Amino acid sequence: MTGLPLLPPGFRFGMATSAYQIEGAFDADGKGPSIWDTFTARPGTVRHGEHGRVAIDHYHRYAEDVAHVADAGAHDYRFSFSWPRVLPTGTGTVNEPGLDFYDRLVDELLARGVRPVPTIYHWDLPQALEDAGGWLSRDTAYAFADYAATLAGRLGDRVRDWITLNEMSVQVLYGYALTAHAPGRGLGFGALPAAHHQLLAHGLAVRALRAAGAATVGVAAQHFPVTPAGDDPADVAAAELFATLTNWTFADPILRGAYPDAVRDLLPVRDGDLEIISAPLDFYGVNYYEPTRIEAPRPGRDYRGVLEVEIPPDLPFAPVPPEATSRTDFGWAIVPAGLTTILTTLHDRYPALPPIVITENGASFHDAPPSPDGRVADERRTAYLDAHLRAVLDAISAGVEVRGYYVWSALDNFEWAAGYAERFGLVHVDRVTLRRTRKDSWHWFRSLIAAQPG
Fold first, then answer.
1. Which sites bind substrate (predicted)?
2. pLDDT tier at 6 (50, 70, 90 boundaries)?
3. Which stretches of 50-153 are assigned E, i.e. beta strand?
């Protein structure tokens, strides 16, 4: 396929990051500890024992990083706030030096002509709130709403577009149901109350942001097609349950105002909660990386290594490798058509679906260091992004309203439990010097944006 994919006029291109993955500056300004600070301090939780205490030092290098976003011609920059940097214990007195950092970041973005699109929560819960129950406690949802109101009160005169939470499903499943991510609770189905409280937090934050005059409000949800490994009714039932837990438990309450039947009785819903959760949104963020294939567990079969995390053998579903002709260096299947499928599925499932923004899509390849002439060749990443943008075009042709696409990520960063080995960035970051170098994919992205219709 030749030429650059051309999206509809007005389509917005952006880059995405998150606070814990890039900021560093663990104790620079009075920031409190988060669950990820605690989690990474435990031996064996993160590859090579790595952590985000320094990360890529975006806290001190934000102006340089904003320049990489702006020089590419990106319209939007999706970043996240660090809750414990703003409120060290999650509630109470604002840490003014911490909030000042986001003042500076927003001003720098606007000065460079880039629209800030902040995410209020991207997994770094203040440890003090986790100690009080974390997302298993309903009180955390109300603390989150107060936190959102604090941010809107300071930045709402310059920030018009807000995302409440990122990938609630991943934090609940990886961090509360399993032990792969912070806080590492390992509760199995006992983690589902955390799902409801995050969804309630989302709805309460939408209310707080609207009250503060926010222009547009959305959420960033991870979605992917789930298919059975075969026609066996047990496999079909296992795939349906997995899809319910990973996709529809989180989307249905927001977009339908009700939970799926399979989980309804497992959630601590109170009168009025679903009305709060289902408040209308201005856009719906979709994060997509790869599809999933599921079967009913077979005795004696080894399912290790199929997913990024290991699913315990006593659960009623098991992952098998999705069909794909190639994979990223993270081992994720490259299936651009899966993005089209999940977008059209959302469109068909939810008659009131708001316009969609692809709030994350990208790939980790283990790029070589910059060559002597300063080049970072990453043709596979360019091909990946090109193919997925064409998949977005296919969804638009099928009637889905997609208004934007954000690459994950702007820069190489701390990839949670995988540490620093996985590189998703359009900009290479040297792990020793922290020097930034624009990859070939960054130059391609700049050319792509420049080629778009007005």
1. 21, 122, 166, 289, 408, 415-416
2. very high
3. 76-80, 115-121
Helices (H), 80-137: 83-86, 96-111, 127-131
Residue 1 in any domain: the answer is no
Known binding residues for substrate are 21, 122, 166, 289, 408, 415-416
Domain count, the chain: 1
Binding-site sequence positions: 21, 122, 166, 289, 408, 415-416
| Reported pTM | 0.98
State the residue range of the domain holding 436: 12-451
Alpha-carbon span 129 to 13, nearest angstrom: 35
In a domain, 108, yes or no: yes
Domain of 411: which CATH number? 3.20.20.80
Helix ranges, 310-378 (H): 336-349
pLDDT for 2 beyond 80: no
Amino acid in the structure at residue 340: T
State the Cα–Cα distance between residues 23 and 387, nearest whole angstrom.
30
Location of structure tokens 């880039």: 114
- Checking phi first, is residue 84 left (phi over 0); if not, alpha (psi -120 to 50) or beta? alpha
Residue 373 lies in a domain: yes
**C-alpha to C-alpha distance for 56 and 202, rounded to whole angstroms:** 29
Closest CA to 167 of 434, 402, 381, 359: 359
Residue 259 in any domain: the answer is yes
* Rounded Cα–Cα distance for residues 327 and 171 (Å): 24
Which sequence positions are flagged as catalytic?
167, 360
